[in-house]
Amino acid sequence: MAEAPKKVCKSCGYSYAEDDGRQHGACFTCTQCRNIASVIRRNLGTTADIAQWTKDETHDFFRSQQKEAADVRLKWTTIRAAWVKKRTEAVIRKFTATVEKEALPKTVWQKRGWEDAVIDRFEPKWSDEYGTYVHELPIQRLRWKEAFQTVEEQVLEQEKTAAKKKGGKGTGDQDLDVPGQAEKDDTTKEEKTKAAEKKKLVSNNAKIAALAARAMGPLCAGESALGKLLARTENVENVNVAAKTLCQDSLETMKRWSAAARAAVNAQEANKGLAADVDPVALAALPFDPADLKVALQQSAAGQKDLKESMPKKEPKAKAKAKANPGSALPSEGDNGEPKPKRRRIKSS
Fold this sequence. Notes:
mainly alpha, two-stranded antiparallel ribbon, 7 strands
Protein backbone atom coordinates (compact mmCIF):
# COMPACT_ATOMS: atom_id res chain seq x y z
CA MET A 1 0.00 0.00 0.00
CA ALA A 2 1.40 3.39 -1.03
CA GLU A 3 2.31 5.80 1.75
CA ALA A 4 -0.04 8.78 2.14
CA PRO A 5 1.43 12.02 0.76
CA LYS A 6 3.03 14.37 3.28
CA LYS A 7 1.92 17.92 3.94
CA VAL A 8 4.35 20.78 4.63
CA CYS A 9 3.39 23.05 7.55
CA LYS A 10 3.45 26.74 6.55
CA SER A 11 4.57 27.74 10.07
CA CYS A 12 7.47 25.41 10.88
CA GLY A 13 8.25 24.04 7.40
CA TYR A 14 8.27 20.40 8.53
CA SER A 15 6.41 17.60 6.72
CA TYR A 16 3.50 15.79 8.41
CA ALA A 17 0.79 13.28 7.67
CA GLU A 18 -2.52 14.87 6.75
CA ASP A 19 -4.04 13.73 10.07
CA ASP A 20 -1.38 15.65 12.05
CA GLY A 21 -2.72 19.06 11.14
CA ARG A 22 -5.42 21.03 9.37
CA GLN A 23 -5.72 22.24 5.78
CA HIS A 24 -7.05 25.78 5.37
CA GLY A 25 -7.30 26.76 1.73
CA ALA A 26 -3.89 26.25 0.15
CA CYS A 27 -2.08 26.26 3.52
CA PHE A 28 -1.50 23.36 5.89
CA THR A 29 -0.71 23.92 9.60
CA CYS A 30 0.44 21.16 11.92
CA THR A 31 -1.27 20.63 15.28
CA GLN A 32 1.62 21.95 17.38
CA CYS A 33 2.01 25.18 15.38
CA ARG A 34 -1.77 25.68 15.39
CA ASN A 35 -1.80 25.39 19.19
CA ILE A 36 1.10 27.87 19.51
CA ALA A 37 -0.68 30.36 17.23
CA SER A 38 -3.88 29.88 19.22
CA VAL A 39 -2.13 30.82 22.48
CA ILE A 40 -0.70 33.95 20.86
CA ARG A 41 -4.14 34.99 19.57
CA ARG A 42 -5.73 34.44 23.00
CA ASN A 43 -3.13 36.61 24.72
CA LEU A 44 -2.54 39.29 22.06
CA GLY A 45 -5.75 39.15 20.05
CA THR A 46 -3.94 38.62 16.73
CA THR A 47 -1.02 36.95 14.96
CA ALA A 48 -0.97 39.47 12.08
CA ASP A 49 2.64 40.47 12.84
CA ILE A 50 3.84 37.10 11.48
CA ALA A 51 2.89 38.30 7.99
CA GLN A 52 5.76 40.85 8.20
CA TRP A 53 8.36 38.13 8.89
CA THR A 54 10.38 36.28 6.29
CA LYS A 55 9.80 32.57 5.76
CA ASP A 56 13.03 31.74 7.62
CA GLU A 57 12.05 33.94 10.58
CA THR A 58 8.62 32.24 10.78
CA HIS A 59 10.12 28.74 10.61
CA ASP A 60 12.77 29.60 13.21
CA PHE A 61 10.17 30.92 15.68
CA PHE A 62 7.77 27.96 15.49
CA ARG A 63 10.54 25.36 15.46
CA SER A 64 12.10 26.86 18.59
CA GLN A 65 8.73 26.73 20.38
CA GLN A 66 8.21 23.11 19.38
CA LYS A 67 11.60 22.23 20.92
CA GLU A 68 10.63 24.04 24.12
CA ALA A 69 7.38 22.07 24.30
CA ALA A 70 9.07 18.70 23.71
CA ASP A 71 10.37 18.21 27.27
CA VAL A 72 8.85 20.87 29.52
CA ARG A 73 5.62 22.72 29.96
CA LEU A 74 5.51 25.66 27.53
CA LYS A 75 4.04 28.75 29.17
CA TRP A 76 2.88 32.01 27.64
CA THR A 77 5.79 33.83 29.27
CA THR A 78 8.17 31.62 27.28
CA ILE A 79 6.32 32.14 24.00
CA ARG A 80 6.07 35.85 24.73
CA ALA A 81 9.84 36.28 25.19
CA ALA A 82 10.55 34.54 21.86
CA TRP A 83 7.75 36.52 20.19
CA VAL A 84 9.18 39.90 21.31
CA LYS A 85 12.71 38.88 20.27
CA LYS A 86 11.63 37.73 16.81
CA ARG A 87 9.51 40.84 16.23
CA THR A 88 12.46 43.03 17.24
CA GLU A 89 14.71 41.23 14.75
CA ALA A 90 12.10 41.79 12.03
CA VAL A 91 11.94 45.52 12.84
CA ILE A 92 15.74 45.83 12.71
CA ARG A 93 15.88 43.92 9.41
CA LYS A 94 13.20 46.09 7.83
CA PHE A 95 14.87 49.27 9.06
CA THR A 96 18.32 48.23 7.81
CA ALA A 97 16.94 48.03 4.28
CA THR A 98 16.14 51.76 4.42
CA VAL A 99 19.28 53.13 6.08
CA GLU A 100 19.71 56.88 5.78
CA LYS A 101 22.75 58.42 4.09
CA GLU A 102 24.34 61.75 4.89
CA ALA A 103 27.01 63.65 2.91
CA LEU A 104 29.32 65.83 5.02
CA PRO A 105 32.95 67.07 4.91
CA LYS A 106 35.54 64.77 6.42
CA THR A 107 36.24 67.18 9.29
CA VAL A 108 32.59 66.98 10.38
CA TRP A 109 32.65 63.19 10.40
CA GLN A 110 35.86 63.30 12.44
CA LYS A 111 34.28 65.61 15.01
CA ARG A 112 31.38 63.17 15.29
CA GLY A 113 33.84 60.48 16.33
CA TRP A 114 34.22 58.56 13.06
CA GLU A 115 37.65 57.07 12.37
CA ASP A 116 39.57 58.11 9.24
CA ALA A 117 39.76 54.51 8.06
CA VAL A 118 35.96 54.24 8.03
CA ILE A 119 35.43 57.64 6.38
CA ASP A 120 37.96 56.95 3.62
CA ARG A 121 36.10 53.78 2.63
CA PHE A 122 33.50 56.06 1.00
CA GLU A 123 34.72 57.91 -2.08
CA PRO A 124 34.75 61.71 -1.67
CA LYS A 125 32.57 63.79 -3.97
CA TRP A 126 32.66 67.53 -4.65
CA SER A 127 29.87 69.54 -3.02
CA ASP A 128 28.93 73.01 -4.30
CA GLU A 129 26.97 73.57 -1.09
CA TYR A 130 30.00 73.13 1.17
CA GLY A 131 32.64 74.20 -1.36
CA THR A 132 34.72 71.13 -0.58
CA TYR A 133 34.75 67.36 -0.93
CA VAL A 134 32.22 65.38 1.10
CA HIS A 135 31.90 61.72 2.11
CA GLU A 136 28.47 60.08 1.98
CA LEU A 137 28.15 57.64 4.88
CA PRO A 138 25.18 55.43 5.84
CA ILE A 139 23.71 56.33 9.22
CA GLN A 140 21.85 53.60 11.09
CA ARG A 141 20.00 55.49 13.79
CA LEU A 142 17.93 52.59 15.14
CA ARG A 143 19.57 50.54 17.88
CA TRP A 144 18.54 47.15 19.25
CA LYS A 145 17.43 48.44 22.65
CA GLU A 146 15.25 51.12 21.02
CA ALA A 147 13.55 48.59 18.73
CA PHE A 148 13.16 46.08 21.58
CA GLN A 149 11.57 48.70 23.84
CA THR A 150 9.12 49.69 21.11
CA VAL A 151 8.07 46.10 20.46
CA GLU A 152 7.78 45.44 24.21
CA GLU A 153 5.42 48.39 24.60
CA GLN A 154 3.30 47.23 21.65
CA VAL A 155 3.00 43.72 23.09
CA LEU A 156 1.96 45.14 26.48
CA GLU A 157 -0.78 47.18 24.82
CA GLN A 158 -1.98 44.13 22.87
CA GLU A 159 -2.11 42.08 26.07
CA LYS A 160 -4.16 44.74 27.84
CA THR A 161 -6.59 45.01 24.93
CA ALA A 162 -7.00 41.24 24.69
CA ALA A 163 -7.56 41.00 28.48
CA LYS A 164 -10.30 43.66 28.33
CA LYS A 165 -12.08 41.81 25.53
CA LYS A 166 -12.05 38.61 27.59
CA GLY A 167 -13.36 40.52 30.61
CA GLY A 168 -10.60 39.06 32.79
CA LYS A 169 -12.16 35.57 32.61
CA GLY A 170 -10.12 32.43 32.46
CA THR A 171 -6.56 31.70 33.45
CA GLY A 172 -5.80 28.92 30.98
CA ASP A 173 -4.33 31.15 28.27
CA GLN A 174 -0.94 31.23 29.90
CA ASP A 175 0.00 27.67 28.89
CA LEU A 176 0.21 25.74 25.64
CA ASP A 177 -2.06 22.70 25.49
CA VAL A 178 0.07 19.98 23.86
CA PRO A 179 0.04 16.20 24.39
CA GLY A 180 1.96 15.10 27.49
CA GLN A 181 1.79 18.55 29.11
CA ALA A 182 1.13 18.77 32.85
CA GLU A 183 -1.83 20.72 34.21
CA LYS A 184 -1.76 24.49 33.93
CA ASP A 185 -0.49 26.86 36.60
CA ASP A 186 -2.92 27.93 39.25
CA THR A 187 -4.10 31.51 39.88
CA THR A 188 -1.58 32.19 42.64
CA LYS A 189 1.41 31.56 40.38
CA GLU A 190 -0.14 33.69 37.67
CA GLU A 191 -0.58 36.58 40.10
CA LYS A 192 3.06 36.30 41.15
CA THR A 193 4.13 36.48 37.52
CA LYS A 194 2.04 39.61 36.95
CA ALA A 195 3.45 41.19 40.11
CA ALA A 196 7.01 40.46 38.92
CA GLU A 197 6.28 41.97 35.52
CA LYS A 198 4.80 45.07 37.15
CA LYS A 199 7.85 45.41 39.41
CA LYS A 200 10.14 45.17 36.37
CA LEU A 201 8.08 47.80 34.56
CA VAL A 202 8.22 50.19 37.52
CA SER A 203 11.98 49.71 37.82
CA ASN A 204 12.53 50.35 34.11
CA ASN A 205 10.33 53.47 34.28
CA ALA A 206 12.38 54.81 37.20
CA LYS A 207 15.65 54.34 35.27
CA ILE A 208 14.29 56.15 32.21
CA ALA A 209 12.85 59.01 34.27
CA ALA A 210 16.09 59.43 36.26
CA LEU A 211 18.19 59.67 33.08
CA ALA A 212 15.70 62.10 31.55
CA ALA A 213 15.78 64.35 34.62
CA ARG A 214 19.61 64.42 34.67
CA ALA A 215 19.79 65.20 30.96
CA MET A 216 17.27 68.05 30.83
CA GLY A 217 19.64 70.65 32.33
CA PRO A 218 22.62 70.11 29.99
CA LEU A 219 20.34 69.70 26.97
CA CYS A 220 18.44 72.93 27.64
CA ALA A 221 21.68 74.85 28.24
CA GLY A 222 23.26 73.45 25.08
CA GLU A 223 20.15 74.17 23.04
CA SER A 224 20.11 77.81 24.25
CA ALA A 225 23.83 78.37 23.55
CA LEU A 226 23.64 76.86 20.07
CA GLY A 227 20.55 78.88 19.18
CA LYS A 228 22.16 82.17 20.18
CA LEU A 229 25.43 81.42 18.37
CA LEU A 230 23.74 80.37 15.14
CA ALA A 231 21.57 83.49 15.25
CA ARG A 232 24.74 85.61 15.40
CA THR A 233 26.15 83.91 12.29
CA GLU A 234 23.06 84.30 10.09
CA ASN A 235 24.35 87.25 8.05
CA VAL A 236 28.07 86.66 8.62
CA GLU A 237 30.16 85.55 5.65
CA ASN A 238 33.27 83.35 5.49
CA VAL A 239 32.51 81.38 8.64
CA ASN A 240 33.58 77.74 9.10
CA VAL A 241 30.87 75.87 7.12
CA ALA A 242 31.67 72.47 8.63
CA ALA A 243 31.52 73.85 12.18
CA LYS A 244 28.24 75.62 11.43
CA THR A 245 26.74 72.40 10.05
CA LEU A 246 27.86 70.52 13.14
CA CYS A 247 26.23 73.17 15.37
CA GLN A 248 22.98 72.97 13.38
CA ASP A 249 22.94 69.16 13.65
CA SER A 250 23.67 69.38 17.37
CA LEU A 251 20.84 71.85 17.86
CA GLU A 252 18.33 69.58 16.13
CA THR A 253 19.52 66.59 18.18
CA MET A 254 19.26 68.47 21.46
CA LYS A 255 15.77 69.73 20.62
CA ARG A 256 14.62 66.19 19.91
CA TRP A 257 16.29 64.73 22.99
CA SER A 258 14.95 67.53 25.22
CA ALA A 259 11.40 66.85 24.04
CA ALA A 260 11.80 63.11 24.75
CA ALA A 261 13.26 63.81 28.21
CA ARG A 262 10.41 66.19 29.12
CA ALA A 263 7.83 63.64 27.94
CA ALA A 264 9.44 60.92 30.08
CA VAL A 265 9.52 63.10 33.21
CA ASN A 266 5.88 64.16 32.68
CA ALA A 267 4.76 60.57 32.11
CA GLN A 268 6.52 59.44 35.29
CA GLU A 269 4.77 62.18 37.27
CA ALA A 270 1.44 61.03 35.83
CA ASN A 271 2.21 57.44 36.89
CA LYS A 272 2.84 58.61 40.45
CA GLY A 273 -0.71 59.95 40.61
CA LEU A 274 -2.30 56.60 39.70
CA ALA A 275 -4.11 54.45 42.23
CA ALA A 276 -2.27 51.46 43.71
CA ASP A 277 -4.41 48.95 41.80
CA VAL A 278 -3.83 50.64 38.42
CA ASP A 279 -0.88 49.47 36.33
CA PRO A 280 1.56 52.25 35.40
CA VAL A 281 2.10 53.18 31.76
CA ALA A 282 5.42 52.02 30.32
CA LEU A 283 7.67 54.98 29.48
CA ALA A 284 9.00 55.19 25.95
CA ALA A 285 12.73 54.50 25.67
CA LEU A 286 14.89 57.62 25.42
CA PRO A 287 16.73 58.14 22.10
CA PHE A 288 20.03 58.40 24.00
CA ASP A 289 21.99 56.89 26.86
CA PRO A 290 24.56 58.57 29.16
CA ALA A 291 27.40 57.83 26.71
CA ASP A 292 25.44 59.30 23.79
CA LEU A 293 24.69 62.44 25.82
CA LYS A 294 28.36 62.91 26.74
CA VAL A 295 29.51 62.59 23.12
CA ALA A 296 26.80 64.96 21.87
CA LEU A 297 27.75 67.65 24.39
CA GLN A 298 31.45 67.30 23.51
CA GLN A 299 30.73 67.57 19.79
CA SER A 300 28.54 70.61 20.38
CA ALA A 301 31.26 72.35 22.41
CA ALA A 302 33.88 71.62 19.72
CA GLY A 303 31.61 72.93 16.96
CA GLN A 304 30.81 76.12 18.89
CA LYS A 305 34.51 76.76 19.53
CA ASP A 306 35.48 76.38 15.87
CA LEU A 307 32.54 78.49 14.71
CA LYS A 308 33.37 81.32 17.12
CA GLU A 309 37.03 81.32 16.06
CA SER A 310 36.05 81.64 12.39
CA MET A 311 33.87 84.71 12.98
CA PRO A 312 35.44 88.15 12.24
CA LYS A 313 36.91 89.74 15.36
CA LYS A 314 35.68 93.09 16.61
CA GLU A 315 38.41 95.73 16.98
CA PRO A 316 38.99 96.96 20.54
CA LYS A 317 37.59 100.43 21.20
CA ALA A 318 40.94 101.92 22.41
CA LYS A 319 42.75 100.89 19.25
CA ALA A 320 39.93 102.15 17.06
CA LYS A 321 40.04 105.55 18.79
CA ALA A 322 43.82 105.76 18.42
CA LYS A 323 43.59 105.05 14.71
CA ALA A 324 40.90 107.67 14.22
CA ASN A 325 42.97 110.40 16.00
CA PRO A 326 46.64 109.31 16.06
CA GLY A 327 48.01 112.64 17.40
CA SER A 328 45.85 112.68 20.48
CA ALA A 329 47.48 109.57 21.93
CA LEU A 330 51.01 111.10 21.95
CA PRO A 331 52.34 113.44 24.68
CA SER A 332 53.05 117.05 23.68
CA GLU A 333 56.67 117.84 22.70
CA GLY A 334 58.92 120.84 23.29
CA ASP A 335 61.15 122.70 20.75
CA ASN A 336 63.93 120.10 21.01
CA GLY A 337 61.58 117.19 20.46
CA GLU A 338 61.63 116.23 24.15
CA PRO A 339 58.30 115.83 25.95
CA LYS A 340 57.39 118.98 27.84
CA PRO A 341 57.64 118.67 31.63
CA LYS A 342 54.41 118.91 33.56
CA ARG A 343 53.73 122.23 35.31
CA ARG A 344 53.67 122.14 39.07
CA ARG A 345 50.78 123.72 40.83
CA ILE A 346 51.93 125.84 43.82
CA LYS A 347 49.55 126.61 46.60
CA SER A 348 49.27 130.33 47.48
CA SER A 349 49.82 131.27 51.09
